[in-house]
Structure formats: C-alpha cells, structure tokens
Specification:
273 residues, Rossmann fold, ProC C-terminal domain-like fold, 2 domains, eight-stranded mixed beta sheet, 8 strands, binds NADPH dihydro-nicotinamide-adenine-dinucleotide phosphate, binds (2S)-3,4-dihydro-2H-pyrrole-2-carboxylic acid, EC 1.5.1.2, NADP, P5CR_dimer
C-alpha cells in the first residue's frame, strides 16, 4: 500500500474518535480527501477535523478507498441502509462493531455497493495514544490488498493480531476490546479502598492510577513475565500473599475468563441485533 487513503468514517464517538485521532496524526490518510460523518460530533472531533483538513459532515460526494463503520451495533440496521454516498463502488468497508457479522453488514449495504467487501476489526480504546491492540478477522471475500490496507490502518493505532475468522475475533474481544474497562475497574476498586481507609478521593485516585501505570511500565521494560513479576512483589508469608489469597477466595482466577466468555455471549446476541 503506497498511496494515502481516502477514508470516510461513519460515527466518531468514543472508539471512532480514538481511531480518527491516531489516523489524523499519522501519514496514512489523504486528509483533504477524507470525511467524517456524525450527526452530533464532539468538540474534540470538530477541532481535529478543522486542524487536519478532514471534512466533517460535508454534502459533497467523493470516492473513498475505505469506509469505517463506527456506530453502535444496535444502530447498524437503521444507519447502514441510509448511507447516501453513491461512490462506494470499490470501497473496502471496515467495521469495528462488536458482534455484527460481515455477512450481516454486507446485507445491510446491498443498496450501497455490489458485493461489498467487509473487514471486521476489534480495536481497543488505547488506540487513541497509538497503544491499541486490534484483532482483525480473515475473510475469504477480502483481497490481499484489502488485508494490507486493514493491517496498515490498525498498525497506525498500535499492535495487530489476525484471527483465523470472525468466530475467533468474537471469542477474543473480551481479552482486548473490553479489557481496558476491566483494568480500569481494578483502578477504581483500589482507589475506593484507599478512600475507605480515609484518603481523600484525589489522593486515592492518584495512588491507584500511578501504581497501575508504574506496573504497566515495569511489565513493558523489565522482560520478566507477569507471573515472575507478581512473585517479585509477593514476599513469602507477607502482605501481598494475604491480599492475593483473599482475591482467590473471592474467585479471582475464574472471574476474568468468565468475563471474557460473557463478552463473547453478548457479541453473539448483538449479531443480528
Ligand atoms: N468503546 C470502545 O472501547 C470500543 C467500541 N467498539 C465498537 O465501536 C463502535 C462504536 O462504539 P462507541 O464509540 O463506544 O460508541 P459511541 O456511541 O461513543 O459512538 C457512536 C457514534 O456514532 C454516532 N452516530 C449515531 N448515528 C449516526 C449516524 N446515522 N451517522 C453517523 N454517526 C452516527 C453517535 O452519535 P450519538 O451519540 O449522537 O448517537 C456516536 O457519536 C461500536 O460498534 C462498538 O462495538 C469496538 C471496540 C472498543
Ligand atoms: O462494550 C462494547 O460492546 C464495545 C466493544 C468492545 C469494547 N466496547
């Protein structure tokens, strides 16, 4: 892939806005030839479009290399058939939605394009700072160039992992797409614990957040596995061992696999929503 991409993005909310920021900051896009559509764009999106030259809610039509579908899965049945850009002939559709399958999307787009090619991607919110992890699902309907384009887009926002198919993507989305919320829930929980011990809310959040960030930085820099680093924190017969034992008593070992399976079940429910 050598040429900058002309992109149209439908939806620039939480995740769409994060990806847009990563793409606008790099050299992946032909920004003057790209467009964002969102009926109520955030101030951040308005500013980003103004600064980068990306068009926001224009009335004029262009031809686009890629159309990113970034509305909620529940909005797909109403939004996709209404897309009114007639220049979708050769466009690759990239969906970031949980659950909704490539076949369902192609059906919803049947009035917009003949045999639409759909790549399903599951990004993560840290894409906003180019530290995302994106799952991409192989699809026999895609060409090698489609795969290259999809991979280049998601690499501009962090790491990529190709899944053999959509089923694998749905099974793994809890480990990637949802997991930032799981980690952040742990930060919230630790901050609450500090508050319960009499610390001010600001100091409680600061210590929980910095401990989380420091641990992530250590994991990144140190070279040891998470298990080895956990053991390095856990002095034999000490306080961490007591805390970990309490977590295990509460079923901690099972709770994350259970959460990943709950996300998968919800993805299946959202397919066809
Ligand atoms: N949030 C995340 O971390 C992740 C989300 N995803 C996927 O990303 C997608 C978007 O999720 P998220 O960003 O969280 O949701 P948001 O609700 O934040 O974003 C959706 C955006 O689409 C806008 N929108 C609604 N109708 C239209 C329309 N007709 N045309 C254009 N834009 C429209 C919404 O506007 P309004 O709010 O005014 O309705 C909103 O700004 C989902 O499919 C989700 O599964 C995937 C991975 C991670
Ligand atoms: O909650 C959701 O459904 C989306 C997909 C993964 C993260 N957020």
């Amino acid at each position: 892939m050598t040429r900058p991409l002309k992109l149209i993005q439908i939806g620039a909310g939480s995740m769409g806005g994060a990806l847009l920021k990563a793409w606008a900051e790099g050299d992946l896009l032909d920004k003057e030839g790209s467009t964002v559509v969102d009926p109520r764009p955030s101030v951040e999106t308005e500013t980003l479009c103004q600064d980068s030259g990306i068009a926001l809610n224009p009335s004029a039509d262009h031809a686009y290399d890629v159309c990113v579908l970034a509305v909620k899965p529940q909005q797909f049945p109403s939004v996709l058939p209404q897309l009114s850009w007639p220049s979708f002939g050769e466009t690759l559709f990239v969906s970031i939605a949980a659950g909704t399958t490539a076949d369902e999307i192609a059906m919803l787009l049947k009035n917009q394009a003949d045999s639409p090619r759909v790549l399903r991607v599951m990004p993560t919110l840290p894409a906003k700072v180019r530290r995302g992890v994106s799952l991409l699902a192989r699809n026999p309907a895609l060409s090698a160039e489609d795969e290259q384009i999809g991979e280049a887009m998601m690499r501009a926002a962090g790491e990529v992992h190709w899944c053999a198919d959509e089923e694998e993507l749905d099974r793994l989305m809890g480990v990637t797409g949802c997991a930032p919320a799981f980690f952040l829930r742990a930060v919230e929980g630790l901050a609450k614990a500090a508050e319960e011990e009499g610390t001010s809310p600001e100091a409680a959040l600061a210590m929980a957040k910095e401990t989380f960030l420091g641990t992530a930085a250590l994991l990144d820099a140190d070279g040891r596995s998470p298990s080895a680093l956990r053991e390095a924190v856990t002095s034999p017969g000490g306080t961490t061992a007591a805390g970990l034992a309490s977590l295990e008593e509460d079923g901690f070992a099972q709770s994350l696999p259970k959460a990943v399976r709950a996300a998968y079940r919800r993805a299946k429910e959202l397919a066809g929503a």
